[in-house]
C-alpha cells in the first residue's frame, strides 16, 4: 500500500475515534511503534488537529470543533450540498444557532475556482420562495435535543387566550405555513397533539422514563397515534375543480377528497385545539374555496378574514 493511502486510512480511523492510543494504531494497522509515531506526525503535518495526553494512560484526541474529516465530493454532490445550505435562507429561526452565512462562505472557499464560479451563478439565480420561518422559537434547540435523546418534557404553552402546562414526549419538528410545529404525545391526556414551537415558552426535562411505544414513531408514521376524541369536529370543505391540484400538492392523512356528482369536498375531522391549523391550511385555496362546514369553523375562517381586512383598511 502506498504511503498516502495508508495516511488516508489512518486519518479516517482517528476521526471515527473519540480517543485512541498508539497501541490501537499498531494493532489496527499491524505497524511498529516507530511507524505509528511517523503517521501521527504526518497527520499533524497535513492539519489534523490532534492533541496528546501524556502519561502511562495517555493517548490522542481530536479537537471537537474539527471532528468532521476532509471529504471529497463530485461536482453534482457539491451543487446538491449548496442547494441544501441555500434552503436555510427560508428559516430565520433554526435549531443550533449557527451562522449559516459563515458556513456558506467556508463552503465556497473550499471548492475549486471553477465550481465556485458555478455556485455563485446558482446563488443569484435560484430562490426557494418567500415563505420564511420568521417567528422566534427560543426553545427550538431544546426540543430538538429532546427528540435526539428521547425525553419527557414539561412545557409552558401559550395559546391566544391562555397559558397551560403540559407533559409531552416530542416526536419530531417540521416547518409548515411559516411556522415550526412539534408533533408530540401528550402524556397526561394520553393522546397525540400538535404544538406550535414559537408558543412553547419554557421547557423542563423531567426524569420520567420516555414511553417505549412512542419512541418507535417519527414524522412518517406519527398519524398512527392520532385518535378521534369525543370533542373532535367533523368538517367538510367544498372546493372548485381548480382546487383539486392544490389539495394534491398538500394534504394530510386524516383528509379525504370526495367527488359527489361534480361537487368536490375535502372531508375529515379535527380536534378543537387544531382548528387554527386547518384555517391556515384553507387559505391557500383562495378563490377556489366554495364553502365550509360546520358553521363554527366557517365563522372562525370568516373572522380571521375580517381581521385581515380590518388591518388593511387602517391605512
Helix content: 25-40%
Shape: elongated
Overall strand count = 12
Strand and helix order: HHHEEHHHHEEEEEEHEHEEHEH
Number of helices: 11
CATH topology of the largest domain: SH3 type barrels
Named at the architecture level, the CATH assignment of the largest domain is Roll
Please compute the radius of gyration using only Cα atoms: 27 Å
What is the average of the pLDDT values? Answer: 83
Strand content: 15-25%
User: How is the biggest beta sheet arranged?
Assistant: 6 strands, antiparallel
Number of spatially distinct domains? 4
At the first level of CATH, what is the class of the largest domain?
Answer: Mainly Beta
Distance between the termini: 76 Å
The low-pLDDT segments are: none
Helix/strand/pairing class, anyone?
Answer: alpha+beta
Q: How would you characterize this protein structure?
A:
- It is built from eleven helices and twelve strands.
- By secondary structure, the protein is of the alpha+beta class.
- The chain folds into four domains: 3-66, Arc Repressor Mutant, subunit A, CATH 1.10.10.10; 75-125; 140-225, SH3 type barrels, CATH 2.30.30; 233-313, Alpha-Beta Plaits (2-Layer Sandwich).
- Strands 3, 4, 5, 6, 7 and 8 form a six-stranded antiparallel β-sheet that branches. A four-stranded antiparallel β-sheet has the order 10-11-9-12, with helices on one face. Strands 1-2 form a two-stranded antiparallel ribbon.
- β6 and β7 (191-196) form a beta hairpin.
- α2 (22-29) packs across α3 (33-45).
- The radius of gyration is 27 Å and the shape is elongated.
- It starts with a helix and ends with a helix.
- The model has no long low-confidence stretch (mean pLDDT 83).
